[in-house]
Amino acid sequence: MLAHGSSAWCLNPTFKMKRKLSSLQRPFLLHISGAYRTTPTAALQTTLGIPPLHMQLQIEARFTSIYRLRIPLPPIITDTQPHDLEMKATGWSTYPSEHLKPNQISFEYGEAYIARKDIINFFTDDSKTEHGVAAAFCVLTTDIWAYQWSAKLNDNNTVFQAELTALHEAVIYASHLPNHNTSKIHVENRASIMASSNSKSTNETARKIFKSKNKSLLG
After folding, report:
1. Distance CA 42, CA 15 (A)
2. What 3-state DSSP class applies to 44?
3. Is residue 132 part of a domain?
4. Alpha-carbon distances of 198 from 88, 100, 158, rounded to whole Å
5. DSSP per-residue letters across 146-189
6. Which residue has the higher pLDDT, 6 or 172?
7. This protein's superkingdom (predicted)?
8. Parent domain of 186
9. Do 77 and 188 form a contact (C-beta atoms < 8 A)?
């Protein structure tokens, strides 16, 4: 109940509000720890590993405002804005009857496909280092480097998001190839294949991949 409406009053709490919330939290900390009543509140929070109440409510308030209400906040409060966060999708990405064909996904190592000259091979890559987050893919046709794509993502993005981004771009590129060409997209992470082959995935990028996967083999 205490967190109700926190997005309206606890985005940037004042010193007076912090003291009031600390006094509300203190009896519970004493009861949990069994410490002396003279023990400082900060010491109780540190010992129990429980953050100050105003910080917990502040995080909840900012999360609610940015992620759920999609309300941008001033830079003095946070650098994260609604467009930086990926929304969860719901429902089916396509009609239930439109499902993956048995030969469209494989968890086996794709070395056999690389040697075949009748298949265009895609290789995706992703990375997250101190220099940032990046996604890329390249296209090989009969041992010739035919095309490459790369992009730098937001520093807040995860490796999984980078992998899905590279896979999505590869599927888009493959969908524009002539109909007689068969494509094989090689990825490093099985989780990205599982997500993009699930028509009810909550990841928006994975759902886009599922919709446009008709001409590609994933593995």
Report:
1. 15
2. helix
3. yes
4. 14, 9, 20
5. EEEEEEEE-TT--HHHHHHHHHHHHHHHHHTS-TT-EEEEE-S-
6. 172
7. Eukaryota
8. 119-216
9. no
